[in-house]
Amino acid sequence: MKKIIAGSLILLGLASGMAQADPRFKEKRHHQEFARVTHVEPIVVQTERRIPRRECWEEDVRYETPAHHRKSYTGPILGGIIGGAIGNELGAGQDNKKVGAVVGAVLGASIGNDISRNSHHRGNNVEYRTETRCNVQHDIEYYERVTGYKVTYRYNGQTYQTRMDHDPGDRIRVRVSVSPVS
């Protein structure tokens, strides 16, 4: 029996030594207390927001549409006849009269064609319509928002700072760790 008791004591001593050497077997040596808050400063960020705003107004818009005329050959024909008569009168001699009449007819036809074309351009229809025009403007709005709090507190004669997402009030919970000095 003495051997069993002695063996048990030896095993118990070895188990106790292993428990102290293995960090899994160390008991936790910390606890929670309260520290006095001495200062709380909000952390503020300025942000901008773009707000679209639509502006509309009435505007008179000019529209030009070509007048619908039938194509007329009166201008070139009349110009050719008048040009041919003038060329015939100005030409001296039999051969020159024929050349002058042909040259006058061609020039007269060209002038008549130009006159006819210009009269079509002046005949365009112009009308005005009132239309609504719109544009999007952006108003910029600035605002501030609190993103956290810079907290200063005192514990055991020492001053500490931390950042928190809320205002802790007059006191803050702290974890105190105790371990032996080797």
Automatic annotation (TrEMBL):
<feature type="signal peptide">
    <location>
        <begin position="1"/>
        <end position="21"/>
    </location>
</feature>
<dbReference type="InterPro" id="IPR051407">
    <property type="entry name" value="Bact_OM_lipoprot/Surf_antigen"/>
</dbReference>
<keyword id="KW-0732">Signal</keyword>
<dbReference type="InterPro" id="IPR008816">
    <property type="entry name" value="Gly_zipper_2TM_dom"/>
</dbReference>
<protein>
    <submittedName>
        <fullName>Glycine zipper 2TM domain-containing protein</fullName>
    </submittedName>
</protein>
<keyword id="KW-0472">Membrane</keyword>
<feature type="domain" description="Glycine zipper 2TM">
    <location>
        <begin position="77"/>
        <end position="115"/>
    </location>
</feature>
<dbReference type="Pfam" id="PF05433">
    <property type="entry name" value="Rick_17kDa_Anti"/>
</dbReference>
